[in-house]
Each structure stands twice: as C-alpha cells, then as structure tokens.
Amino acid sequence: MSTVTPNLAIKYPRTRDTGGGDPPSYGGGNGDDRGNGGASDYGDRLRRARLGLVIGLTAVIMLFVGFTSALLVRKGLPTFDQQTNTYSRDWVPINLPWILLLVNTAVLLVSSATMEFARRDITRQAALAPVKSIPGVSLGDEQRFPWLGSTVILGFGFLAGQFLVWRVLHERHSFVNSNPSSSFAYLLFATHAVHLAGGVIALVWAAATALLHRPVESRRIVIDVAAWYWHFMALLWIYIVTLLWIAR
Amino acid sequence: MATSEIVHAHAAPQGFIRKYIFSLDHKVIGIQYFFLALTAVWVGMILSLLMRIHMIWPDANLPFVGHIQPETYLSILTMHGTIMVFFVLTTAPQGGFGNYFLPIQIGAPDMAFPVLNMLSFWTTFVAFVVILAAFFVTGGAPLHGWTGYPPLSAMQSTGPGEGLGADLWITSIAIFCAASLMGALNFITTTLDLRAKGMSMFRMPLTVWSWFITAILGLLAFGVLLSAGILLLMDRNLGTSFYVPLVVVNGQIMGHKGGSPLLWQHLFWFFGHPEVYIAILPGMGVASQLLSTFSRKPIFGYKAMVYAMLAIGFLGFMVWGHHMFMSGMSPYSAFAFSILTMGIGVPSAIKTFNWLGTIWGGRVRFHSPMLFAVGFVSLFVSGGLSGPFLAQPTLDIPLHDTAFVVGHFHLIMGVAAIFGIFAATYYWVPKMFGRMMNETLGRIHFWFTLIGTYAIFMPMHYLGMAGQPRRYSQFTEVAYLQHLIPLNRFITYCAIITIAAQLVFVINLFWTIFKGPKASDNPWEATTLEWTTATPPPHDNFGGHTPVVHNGPYEYGVPGAARDYIMQNEPATSPNPAH
C-alpha cells in the first residue's frame, strides 16, 4: 500500500480479506477513533493517509506530465512565420540565474533532511507515548531540536529564494511573455511554489495541532504525510531544474 | 467549516448546517451532488431546447433571450455542452450515486477522507456558480464550444463572450478539475482500504468496480486538463504564446507568435476521451447490477466484465487522436489511433454479450429500474455502432463536424449515460429516501424518453450524411439543406415532447421523497450490502456494526437455497439462511 517503511515497525494485517480478527489498536481511549464499527484505529489511519497521499501525488504528477509534454511540443515544433513565409523555431533559451537556483536547491534539500528528522522524531514519540502514559515512568531528556520549525523556516527561505530568481529574471528583461522558454520557466516555478506553499501550510497545521494538545498519534499522521509530500516537492524541484537545464 | 476535523467525522452532527449543508456524511454529500446535477441538467436541457427552436424558427422571439443572434447561439451551444458533460454526466453517476453507495456497498462507515469529500462537493458547487456567472457578465457566455479550441478561445478580442465570459468558463473548469481530483482520491483510497472483512476485490459489486475505474480515469485525466487550462489562461491574460500562432483578429495583428493550436487539442483530448468513459462507465456498472438483480440470475461473466471495464479504461487513454483526424496529423498516427479506437469495440462487445447473456433465460421483472437498464443497453449498442464509422479517417473526413457526430455522441455519451442515471435513481431512491417511486409514472417516463431520444438522435445520423453541419446557427436559408428542414422540424417537436416528459420524472421524484409509499429494507430482493441495512441507512451505515461478507455480489437463483437469492453477508455454510 504505502511506499515507505516506518523505522518503528507497526504491525497491521496487510489485508482484511483473510480474516484473522481485528487489527491491533493503538492509542485507544483517547476519543480519537472514528468509532462506530471500530475499523479505524491509528495504524489504519496512518496507512490510509499515506495511501491517499500517493494517489494525490499521482494527480500532481499528471499535472506536470501535461506541462512537460507541452514544453517538449512547444520547443520542438517549427512554426510558420507569416511575416517571412518560412518555418522557424522561435525558442530562445532563457538566461536563468543557475547559481541562485543551485542555492535554492541546496536549501530545499536541507529542508528535506530536517523534515525527515522531524518525521522520525514524531514517530519515536508516538511509539513511546503508551509507555510514557504509565504513571511513574519517565523517559528522561525531553529537550528536542525544533526540526519542524527549521523545515518551515527553510521552506520560507526557498520561497524567498524563488522570489529573488524572479527579480533577477525581471532585471534581465525575461518576462513571462518574452519567449516560450521564459513562459515555461515562470509556469513551472510558480506551480511548484504553489504546491510547496501547500506543504508549508500543512507543516504549520501540524505545529498547530501540537499547540492544540491533540494526541501525538494524530500529529504523527499529519507530520508523516507532510514529510513524504515535502520529499516529493524536493524531487519535483530537481526534476524541474533538470528539465529547464536540458531544454535550454 | 473547513476546520472541522477528520477524527470527529463520525460523531452524528446535530445542527441543521452540520447535518444538511456542510455535512461530512457521504450519503448527504451524495444527495447534494445528485440535486446539483438535477439542477444542472435542467439548465442544460433548456439550453438545448432554445437551440432546437432557433434552428427551425430562426426569427422567433423567445422569452428571456429574445431573438437569438448567431453569437448567442454559440454561447448557448458552449454552455449546453460544458454543463452537461461536467455538471451532469460527471457529477451525477460518480459524485451522486458513487458517493452514496460505494462506501455502503463495500461495508464501510464512510469515505476514507470525509472532510475532503465535503470540500470536493463544495468546490464543485463553486465551479457551477462560476460557470453560470458567465451568462451574466458583459459579452455573455463564451462561444468556443465545450472543447474550447484556440485561437478562438485563447484571446480576449475574438468575439463577444470571449472576454470575461471565457475566463470564467476556464476558471470553472479548473475548479472542477480540482474537485474531481479530490473526489477521485477519496474513491480510490476508500475502495482499496475500507472494504469490510471478506469483501475481496472480486466480491465487489460491478457498480463499485465501475466507480473505482472511473476514479482512476479521473485521477489521470483531470490533472492534464488542469495543465491545459492553466496554459490557456496564461495565453489569454499574460500574453504568452503556448497555443496562439501569429494571428490577425478583426484586422489587427495580435501580440502572439509561434504557438500551436494543436497542442491544446492534444492535451484537451487526452482528457476528453477518458472523460467519455468517466460518463459512461458508472452506467455500465449500474446496468450490470440491475440486469442481474431483475433477471434473478448471476451476472454472466463477472470477471470478464471487470477486465472489460479495465480494458476500456486503459484503451480510453490511447485513442485521443481520433478526435483530430481533420487536424492534419500524419496518416500513420491516424492509422494507429484508428486501429486502437476500433479495438475498444472488443471489450464493449464483451460487455454487451454478457448483458444479454445475463437476461437470457432469466425470470425478468420489468420494474422501472430494469426498463431503464435495458434501455441503457439498447442505447449503448445503437450509439456505439456508429463509433467504428467515425473511427476510420476516410469516413471521418466527410462526417466530421456534421450532425452525424452529434447523433453518435448524444446517443452513447449523453442519453445512454442518462439512462444509467435514471436506472440508478429508480433503483436506489427507495434506499436513499425510504420511499418507493411510482411505477406507472416511471413507465410513462421510460417510454416517452426512450422513443423520444431515439426519434431525436437517430435522424441526426441521416442529417449528417446529407451534409448538415453542426454548430451552425442558421441553415434554413442554405439551398442544399432546404429539404432537411422538415426532418429538423420533426426533431424539434420530439425534443419538446421528450423534455416535457422529464417533468413526469421530476414530479414522481419529489412526490416520492415527500409522499411516496414507504419502502422496505430490500424491496428489489437484491443481494448487495446496501440492502442489508435499514432504509434509509443510519449515520454510520450499518448501525454500529461492520458487516462481514461471505458471498459474491450476484448470488441469484442459487440451487437448493431457501429463497432465490443469497445476501452478501449471509454465511455461506448455512444450508438454510436464517431470515
């Protein structure tokens, strides 16, 4: 179902077709179950959220498949110029600030790493939550590095970096309608930025659930799914930069 | 309301707004989708009536619209197509009945993501409001047809309605894409992850299979349409040239250069052809379900039906070029698209054969849902048979953009899909509202609609072969079309009668909802899980327990059983089922 292996094994039956009793329940008694029918517990909800994410990312991939094929067609097709009565290619390579783009890529990759630490951190917390709830049991050091906050800041840093890229492009007089190459650069950057901003909102939501004292299991689901989405955003970004490099 | 939380989705809501407006209950959302589609279908139908009247009385002064100008005719045509395809044929069978019955038929308490489900409906609603707004802005609704071909659609100055109206049109489609993607995500996750114990994939009713496959098609198709729509909006408003070559509009050279209108056609039809199957597949599922139930026989070739639907869905993504034979594509590409398109005939024929095999020798009960299911098969065959004609480039060249095409796609994608919706309505309203629909009114509605739609769309094939072009506002003054006016008049009369007959349906529906005789839990003696629960189903569908499935979905006429059917949740080992 999911494409990932949590670093703390959570046991649940792969299918429920073969019978074998109800799946084990985690975090029960916190009023968090979907109740009625008892089919939904924490492990099930995590798996379902990850499955939903994979399916949702398929839609995002199709969006970029559409953009990519449009780019290849637009770049490759000779077009008839009625003024000169000839066929010509009107694709003028855009002069992108590659150094700045590489810096942005680095920022995004580091944020992906901090996101992964945040995901592992919350996974550990979720696994230890039942132990901690035993009276008199302490797990010692509660100080943790704010991985989630770092990711949000780095995410904003990336968006700011992209803003700088746009400023540079404007200074170089590469506007959205200057040439198909710049149209696609703006299009891909903007669409990626919108999707990444969605990821930032998800992270802020995850932080908010922490403030709302929602159970750690619920927070873990939000952070886990946001993390995989975030990694996907990094991959998508590398794809976009590579595509623009190849299509120069 | 967007702040309501997933985890509380199953506490039964109390207030009116939580219960009926921003509900998280898939059943309420399904009914919302259903009534949205019912509203949209009346808008679309009245637009078609205006077109038919204008065609034979071009100088008539009509109420509200006055004398229809050529531009107004094109606006009406565009909005009719768009509203019918998106807000009726995509919304009712999948969003409406799929939402209501997919979770119940697989034994789930709700959709996988109830909040997303609610958002999906309200996003669709916003899209509907936005597209209706196009009627009321300066210049009116767009002129470019539901396919929105550039350059006409890609610039503001190409005609009245191509200004703000066209922007609203594209925005509405983009919003609809987002809503459909949310819906598809929910349908797929629910089907894969929320099936009750014992409900293996091959025990799912064929309706569930059809909704599942439709959701996969939507997931893959709507993202591409969204990308195409974003590019179109950029061409219109940011001065880019994705689709627009160097063009002269009204004597003025536009700023665009080098774009390819064909690029839009490729992206649009990559979505557009699967969209045809998004409209018809749920109808296939409903027809299979009903033919089996009302013939009291297991479905003939269950697995073949599943594989045929998968094959249709798969091939549906391979054939978009057959909409573009006239675009100057290479004959080699046209040949490939042609062969693949005719290949779809194979799984379609398997399905038709199996439907006929299902009713063959059955003890058929001709209740109104069954009538519409049989009508679906009839229309699917009649509308489908003209497909292989159009799939051949040599025949498509003369028939392209004639009334032949209009007759073809209305029979198969329009009317057949609508018959699937009607069949589903007559079949499931007793479960949804707890009351039986009137059988006599149902039969009247069926016969008027069946004969009426055949009388409207069959002659269009002849009109097309005689050379009548589609999308022309006025043909009555064209010399070579004079002899076709009487036939066109006949079609318009039939359209008026058929549309009037739909009032019978609406009266029957609302009378049933408020005053109809109470329905029992299983009035059709069907086997699937929705008939095992109360009527109408409680908030969590099964009243506090999760069903366990022991049987396939079509156990009718079982030898040695106490009755002629076995419910899906009856233990298979019991020789004499309890109740």
Overall form of chain B = globular
- Whole-number average pLDDT of chain B? 93
How would you sum up the global shape of chain A? elongated
CATH class of chain B: Mainly Alpha
Overall domain count of chain B: 1
Please report the number of helical segments of chain A.
Answer: 5
Largest sheet of chain A: 2 strands, antiparallel
Helical region count of chain B? 17
Helix-strand layout with pairing:
The complex is a heterodimer of chains A (248) and B (579).
Chain A: H1 42-76, E1 79-81, E2 86-88, H2 98-132, H3 147-171, H4 180-211, H5 216-246
Antiparallel strand pairs in A: 1-2
Chain B: H1 16-21, H2 26-56, E1 61-62, E2 66-67, H3 70-89, H4 91-105, H5 114-133, H6 164-193, H7 206-237, E3 248-249, E4 252-253, H8 261-295, H9 302-316, H10 331-343, H11 345-359, H12 368-385, H13 387-390, H14 393-399, H15 403-433, H16 439-465, H17 485-515
Antiparallel strand pairs in B: 1-2, 3-4
Question: What's this model, at a glance?
Answer:
The complex is a heterodimer of chains A (248) and B (579). With 248 residues, chain A is mainly α.
